[in-house]
Design brief:
There is one protein chain. By secondary structure, the protein is an all-alpha fold. It folds into 2 domains: about 1-60, Orthogonal Bundle (Arc Repressor Mutant, subunit A), CATH 1.10.10; about 80-210, Tetracycline Repressor, domain 2, CATH 1.10.357. It contains 10 helices and no strands. The longest helix is centred in the first third of the chain and has 34 residues, at about 5-35. The termini are far apart.
Length: about 210
């Protein structure tokens, strides 16, 4: 009589163990990609870092898929989400009042860039030689453009921006200003702290929005 319940329990246990193994492999891959780059990171190295066999890594995901998943996890905290509107924080930000809305958006993006800028650089490089990575990168960039277009519409609706340019042009400018590349150049390479970077963002974005 208890056998079906036992089978369900064992199935759930295996599923949980598989999720934990996948998460460990993705985390190990992300660390190695960020440290050594895409080409220099091998499946064997990922397996050693994750404490599993090479076959387990291969059955979990391809190298390209691991890079993509590592970026998604770094940027937004979950697989399948690599854009501003995909993050869980975004859902709460949209409910904030006008006087704190833009600062909350800038803080959210800054935190995401702080987590993901190193693996983003690896993603850009890998896309030059790996067609699968390039395909996903193209989708991410298109989605990012759409995100910022929606952000511009939201800011205009709230009276926090004026139609200084057409919305698509403004969205492209925001995408550049708020990119992982700007974070890497100003914070990682130039040594700015978070407060200095945030002050620069506020001023640059305010100028672009006509505020």
């Amino acid at each position: 009589m208890v056998e079906p319940a036992t089978r369900v329990y064992r199935s759930e246990l295996r599923a949980r163990q598989a999720r934990e193994t996948r998460a460990r492999i993705i985390a190990a891959a992300g660390d190695l990609f960020a440290q050594h780059g895409y080409q220099a990171t091998t499946i064997a190295a990922i397996a050693r870092a994750a404490g599993v066999s090479g076959e387990t890594v291969k059955s979990t995901a391809s190298k390209a898929e691991l890079l993509i998943a590592a970026f998604e996890m770094a940027f937004s905290g979950r697989e399948g989400a690599a854009s501003l509107t995909d993050t869980e924080v975004a859902e709460g930000v949209l409910e904030l009042p006008d006087d704190v809305f833009l600062d909350a958006v800038l803080a959210q993006i800054t935190d995401a860039n702080a987590r993901g800028h190193r693996i983003w650089t690896v993603l850009l490089g890998a896309a030059l030689s790996d067609g699968r990575v390039d395909e996903v990168l193209t989708r991410i960039l298109h989605r990012r453009t759409d995100d910022y277009r929606r952000l511009v519409d939201e800011l205009i609706a709230r009276g926090l921006a004026v139609a200084k340019h057409d919305p698509q042009t403004t969205a492209a400018a925001l995408s550049f200003l708020l990119s992982p590349e700007s974070y890497q150049q100003l914070v990682t390479q130039s040594g700015w702290n978070r407060d200095t970077y945030m002050q620069w963002l506020r001023a640059a974005v305010a100028t672009e929005l006509g505020r």
